[in-house]
Design goal:
Number of domains: 2
Distance between the termini: 42 Å
CATH topology of the largest domain: Ribosomal Protein S5, domain 2
Number of strands: 10
Helix content: 25-40%
GO molecular function: galactokinase activity
Order of helices and strands: HEEEEHEHHHEEEHHHHEEH
Shape: globular
Radius of gyration: 20 Å
Oligomer: single chain
Protein name: Galactokinase
Strand content: 15-25%
CATH class of the largest domain: Alpha Beta
Largest sheet: 7 strands, mixed
EC number: 2.7.1.6
CATH architecture of the largest domain: 2-Layer Sandwich
Keywords: ATP-binding, Carbohydrate metabolism, Galactose metabolism, Kinase, Nucleotide-binding, Transferase
Pfam families: GalKase_gal_bdg, GHMP_kinases_C, GHMP_kinases_N
Number of helices: 10
Length: about 350
């Protein structure tokens, strides 16, 4: 198994890790000032760094067994922009060796945010940067916007930087106020990868963001966060009305879910998936099939896609102690090839 030492022949000068996240409610609301309810997952990405006294960054991914060489000041390709963006925005002007390893699955669980937060934490340690956890998260968002090309909101990086695995983190993405919220009693979280890959920058993600920004402009509001009555949307063009209806109703679902029992919370998750599928149109037929199997299982309170969509992971709220069994039942029906097996 490779390590910084085996790849670069010396010990790293700094090392840090960050978790992925799964979002229970509040999807595609964070770039409209809305409310989100993520939690950290146990899987993490670790980044180790060391100065190499050269004019290039050497980036090694243990998972893909890939080494990239990028001149200082350039962005690079493949996974490099997530790293070089962090380096550039942190004022790094010398060559670094960077070693990346982790077990956060790609697709809906914020592996990119975990990579950015882990990198920024390692740089904070290496250079004694005055960067608190919120400022660090916001720098990760800037990396996505300026170097990766994804106009994401703040949820993923905030969750990776601030959330833990024992509670949900309610975030007001306008004010950045946040507080821990307990999981519904008698329930546990189940996450399943649908097996459908997706790439945000090449998907409809940026298009959806542009659509809701246009809806906000037509409604003469700063963000759809300021709309609480879906009837207000009736004058919008049909497509923009659907997109805006998801954001407005999703914000309401997050607030409605606070303090609810598992059954009621699960129903809100089911409604969230229907809205993402039908109004926001960011789901996928295979994801829908997996969600439907989960929703039909007697030990599942509710299920939905999670993350930006177009494939990726699904999240379910299961009876405490029953998640593993439910997952086995559902995956048997879903099929090893990523498609539902018809009985």
């Amino acid at each position: 198994m490779s390590s910084f030492e085996t790849v670069f022949g010396r010990a790293p000068e700094a090392s840090a890790s960050a978790p992925g996240r799964v979002n229970l409610l509040g999807e595609h609301t964070d770039y409209q000032g809305g409310f989100v309810l993520p939690t950290a997952i146990p899987q993490r990405i670790t980044v180790s760094v060391g100065r190499n006294r050269s004019g290039e960054h050497v980036l090694h991914s243990a998972n893909s067994r890939t080494t990239l060489r990028v001149p200082v000041g350039e962005v690079g390709s493949e996974f490099a922009p997530y790293i070089t963006g962090c380096l550039t925005l942190s004022g790094v002007t010398e060559g670094l060796d960077v070693f990346i390893q982790g077990n956060v699955p790609s697709g809906g669980l914020s592996s990119s945010a975990a990579l950015e937060v882990a990198t920024l934490r390692a740089l904070r340690d290496l250079y004694a940067l005055e960067l608190d956890d919120v400022a660090l998260a916001l720098r990760g968002v800037k990396v996505e916007h300026e170097f990766v090309g994804v106009k994401c909101g703040v949820m993923d990086q905030m969750a990776s930087s601030l959330a833990d695995t024992t509670t949900m983190l309610l975030i007001d993405t306008r004010s950045l106020e946040r507080r821990a919220v307990p999981f519904p009693a008698g329930a546990e979280v189940l996450v399943i990868d649908s097996g459908v890959p997706r790439r945000l920058a090449e998907s409809g993600y940026n298009e959806r963001r542009a659509q809701v920004e246009e809806a906000s402009r037509l409604l003469d509001v700063k963000e759809l966060r300021d709309v609480t009555d879906v009837g207000t949307l009736d004058g919008l063009p049909a497509l923009l009305q659907k997109r805006a209806r998801h954001v407005v109703s999703e914000n309401a679902r997050v607030l409605a879910g606070l303090g609810e029992d598992a059954a009621a919370f699960g129903q809100l998750m089911n409604a969230s998936h229907a809205s993402l599928r039908d109004d926001y149109e960011v789901s996928h037929p295979q994801v829908d099939a997996l969600v439907a199997l989960l929703q039909a299982h007697p030990d599942i309170f509710g299920a939905r896609m999670t993350g930006a969509g177009f494939g990726g992971a699904v999240v379910a709220l299961a009876r405490a102690g029953r998640a593993a069994g439910a997952a086995q039942d559902v995956l048997t029906q879903y099929g090893p090839d990523g498609r539902r097996v018809v009985p």
